[in-house]
Amino acid sequence: MAQPLPLRTALERGALVTAANWQVVVVQLTAETLLKVAIAVPVLAGVFLVAVDLGADAVDLLQGDLLTSARVVYGSLRASPIALAAFLGAVALSTVAAAIFTFITKGGTVRTLVRAESQAGPIEQPPLRLAGFTRAAAWSIDQFLDGCRHLSRRYVRLGLVLLAVYLVTAAAYLSFLYTGMRVMSEGGVIAGWPFIALAASSALIVWVTLVNLVYILVQMIMAADDVGVRAAAGRLARFAQDDARQVAGIFGVVLLLFLMAAAASLLATAGLGLIAFVPLAGFAVLPLQLAAWLLRGLLLQFLGLTAFTAYLAQYQRYGEGAGARAGLRSA
After folding, report:
1. pLDDT at residue 111 is higher than 90
2. 32-64 in b/e burial notation, b at 16+ Cβ within 10 A?
3. How far lies 162's CA from each of 103, 116, 205, 255, in Å?
């Protein structure tokens, strides 16, 4: 087993390999955007249905975010079980279908990055030359589609497990909030409820973050070693136990960068919101907002794939991925 890379070196290698395969960043942003659109379409259709039924203005019902609109639709359709069931079925069907598409495209992305990391050589060692940067470029549409086909079944199976964990988590969280609120209301002790709800929400965020990290690492091992979900989970347990400090370091740095990018995005959005109130200048806000959204999406995808490639670089040096590297070179 080779020595793990220093944290900075692993992140530099991950960023360079990801930049050399910038096409996967665009693909991931496109896939996740399609997922959000697929979820939004039935919700927006439900909003217009409610607007027609209530004789209200659909624009008024669309005030707020997508979750607020979904609550409005649910509250209005609750009196009609058939309409509510049709609405929930449409949201579930479109969400699962779009998620499966996202899982399949993820297979092509991960396969591309595994190949790129294997052939990149010491790209992180200065000076950076064009020949070394080009050597790390493994993207091709044929290889991407081959990766989608090769990993599709395993990634869809893993993705459905993730959706099931999300569903169980959401049900447990909402049940806790509902039961706790009712019990404390009946006992007349309601003053401390906001702190309990905050603690539960914080625990939910930590749990979902941990689940997503495990999901990403299992994806990585499945592609690197060409194994199934169960075998990848077992290898992840050994890798996390032996290299926990390296994984935690990459995760912490990238999480900090994510938070900084989100804060910068909020500041930019607030600034553009102020411009919108200026006469005539408001016409320039829409393209600026679209450009800011695109830049933010590409940046966040780049950071996520950089972290993934850094994990992959550490795992390859851990020793479990030697067979997969040999197989990729001979393919």
Report:
1. yes
2. beebeebbeebbbebbebbbeeeeeeeeebbee
3. 11, 27, 15, 21
Of the two residues 40 and 17, the one the predictor is more confident about is 17
Q: Which of 267, 262, 258, 260 is nearest to 302 (CA)?
A: 258
Look up the pTM and report it: 0.80
Instruction: Calculate the CA 142 to chain-centre distance.
Output: 25
Evaluate whether 224 touches 114 at the Cβ level (below 8 Å): yes
pLDDT value of position 297: 85
Q: Which of 34, 61, 33 is nearest to 45 (CA)?
A: 61
The alpha-helical segments, DSSP class H, found in 188-226 are 193-225
Does an H or E element contain 47, and which?
Answer: helix 22-54
* pLDDT(328) > 50: no
- Indicate the SS3 state at residue 190: coil
- Position 124, amino acid: E
Distance CA 66, CA 307 (A): 29
CA atoms within 13 A on the CB side of 230: 0
Give the HSE-up count for residue 217: Cα atoms under 13 Å, Cβ half-sphere: 25
Rounded Cα distance between 116 and 70, Å, is 42
Helices (H) and strands (E) in the chain, counts: 12, 0
CA distance 112 to 106: 10
Residue 187's pLDDT is 64
Nearest alpha-carbon partner for 313 in 11, 103, 111: 11
Q: What are phi and psi of 100, to 5 degrees?
A: -60, -40
Taken in order 79, 84, 86, 87, is the CA torsion positive or negative? positive
Each residue of 59-99: pLDDT tens digit? 555 555 555 666 666 666 666 777 777 777 877 888 888 89
The total of other beta-carbon atoms located within 10 Å of residue 203's CB is: 12
Residue owning tokens 């550490």: 314
